[in-house]
Amino acid sequence: MEVIQFRKMLAEVSKGVKEHELAAMKFMCKDFIPKRKLEEIKSALHLWEALEERELLGVYNTRFLKELLQTSGEGRTDLLRIVQCFDGLPVCGPAIANNAVPGQMSQGEWRQDTNALCTRNRTDHTVFGVMAG
Questions:
Q1: Within 87-129, where are the H helices?
Q2: Which of 35, 80, 104, 130 is deepest in the core (most CB within 10 A)?
Q3: For 20-32, how does the pLDDT look when each residue is reduced to its tens digit (9 = 90+)?
Q4: What is the pTM of this model?
């Protein structure tokens, strides 16, 4: 079940990654992913796959992804909160549970909604509105 939740989290984060942010993330990955592979990457999901292949991203390893989100372009704290929620930190809420898409909400609404999500604790294994097993 954790793998499914991990994939759902990656899909949610990828929906919010803008084209210029993806370009910045790819640039930051130059030392880890060969140039030819980077040129083939056209979406955040493809980048996540490449990072997984190199064991820089996984169910129990989101540190590199968090670093990318913190340092790419605008420092996407809204997307970072989604990853932190997956990691079990108290930062998740209705936007994720209700399958809200960052691009369909104003940035302020998304941040406010994801901040509201920060109410769960580590004993509650609900992630994205689904009980994690």
A1: 94-97, 107-116
A2: 80
A3: 999 999 999 999 9
A4: 0.67
